[in-house]
Write a structure and sequence with these properties.
255 residues, Rossmann fold, 7-stranded parallel sheet, two-stranded parallel ribbon, 51% helix, binds NADP nicotinamide-adenine-dinucleotide phosphate
């Protein structure tokens, strides 16, 4: 059985990946901070899909959590989903700088270190994949969040190109860039989403489905949903300052 490690596997997009990969027959390693919730998720998925489920309780904003995750990855995993992430409540100067740095640790340092830990084994075995969950905000300025997600896209493309010659395309790295998805993300960040029009919301399972389909096709940057493919395409033609002002306002009302 192939094994997938998913960070942020207890809620939202990570939980949707866990359900889908279990249904596809992957054994699962589920990582998040809340141990009780992880254990419940692992039990449910094992009972429902008869796959093996292991939990890793780790906070990816800490050195200890990062080391724990790296060690588990070095023992061998076939698919890594770097998904854990969060939004801060407020725009740049309203957020404590320590919270912005925590975001860089989880969105950038964790993605870099976990990818670095898992790829050598994949290249040795000649198969495997890493999916780094970014966001469409990577394509238009949106504070530290958008900047961190732009880093994820650039990093993923860079690594994918670096390893392309070594794996003959059998080890893949892809950035997955969803638009708005109904998860716990906005509530946790205290964001009021009432002004976001219905057509801009994507379903978790469809995001996962589109992402895994693009991964099989060898796509490096996956943007689920026709509406977001169009928006990302348009950002190439709209002046960057205007796109930045629009993006900075959309869905950024705080309770
Ligand atoms: N929802 C959207 O509209 C949207 C759009 C584009 C991109 N994204 C991206 O999608 C990813 C998943 O977000 P989501 O919407 O599914 O959010 P979510 O429902 O809030 O789930 C976040 C998951 O990450 C875990 N997590 C958070 N901080 C962590 C940390 N420091 N260490 C380990 N695990 C941590 C949480 O579990 P614990 O609290 O137990 O640790 C939870 O399992 C994020 O990278 C987000 O930026 C979301």
């Amino acid at each position: 059985m192939p094994t997938a490690l998913i960070t942020g596997a207890t809620a939202g997009i990570g939980a949707a990946f866990a359900r889908r990969l279990a249904a596809d027959g992957f054994d699962l390693v589920l990582l998040a901070r809340d141990g009780d919730r992880l254990a419940g998720t692992a039990r449910d998925l094992h009972d429902r899909y008869k796959v093996s489920t292991e939990i890793v309780v780790a906070d990816l904003s800490t050195e200890e959590g990062l080391r724990t995750a790296e060690e588990r990855l070095r023992t061998g995993v076939d698919l890594l989903i770097n998904n854990a992430g969060f939004g801060n409540k407020g725009t740049f100067l309203n957020v404590p700088v320590s919270d912005e740095l925590t975001m860089l640790k989880v969105h950038c340092e964790a993605v870099l270190r976990l990818t670095h830990a898992v790829l050598p084994g994949m290249l040795e075995r000649g198969r495997g994949a890493v999916v780094n969950v970014s966001s469409v905000s990577a394509f238009a300025t949106r504070g530290t969040y958008g900047a961190s997600k732009a880093w994820v896209v650039s990093f993923s493309q860079g690594v994918a190109s670096d390893i392309a010659g070594r794996s003959g395309g059998r080890v893949r790295v892809m950035a997955l860039c969803p638009g708005f998805v109904h998860t716990e993300f906005h509530e946790r960040a205290g964001m009021d989403t009432s002004g976001i029009p219905g057509f801009m919301w994507l379903e978790q399972d469809k995001v996962v489905d589109a992402g895994l389909r693009d991964l099989r096709r060898g796509v490096q940057v996956s943007v689920p949903g026709a509406q977001y493919k169009a928006i990302v395409g348009l950002t190439r033609f709209v002046p960057r300052g205007l796109a930045g002002r629009m993006s900075s306002r959309t869905g950024r009302k705080y309770d």
